[in-house]
């Protein structure tokens, strides 16, 4: 059973077209990761699927591009939910 935050993650991922089930979500994230690697110029280093030689700074750049889309939208939704609850309370 998914936690409420996990459910929110998949809801946001669905809204972004990333996928609402685990398999589709993971497949699309992998595609996005490769796309980000191309954008920052490290695709040749990771095209075989091995990221062990990629500096952490570059991995962070890739992760930031992926997590930013999902995480940023999750934060927006959480803030909206909190605002709704506060309005109901006061």
TrEMBL record:
GO terms for biological process: DNA topological change; sporulation resulting in formation of a cellular spore. It comes from the Bacteria. Keywords: DNA-binding, Sporulation. The keyword DNA-binding applies. Pfam families: SASP. The keyword DNA-binding applies. PROSITE patterns: SASP_1. SASP are bound to spore DNA. They are double-stranded DNA-binding proteins that cause DNA to change to an a-like conformation. They protect the DNA backbone from chemical and enzymatic cleavage and are thus involved in dormant spore's high resistance to UV light. Belongs to the alpha/beta-type SASP family. This is Small acid-soluble spore protein.
């Amino acid at each position: 059973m998914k936690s409420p935050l996990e459910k929110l993650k998949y809801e946001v991922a669905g809204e972004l077209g990333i996928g609402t089930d685990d398999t589709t979500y993971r497949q699309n994230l992998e595609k996005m990761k490769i796309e980000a690697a191309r954008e920052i110029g490290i695709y040749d280093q990771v095209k075989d699927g091995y990221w062990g030689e990629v500096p952490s700074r570059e991995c962070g750049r890739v992760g930031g591009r992926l997590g930013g889309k999902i995480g940023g939208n999750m934060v927006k939704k959480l803030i909206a939910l909190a605002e709704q609850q506060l309005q109901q309370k006061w």
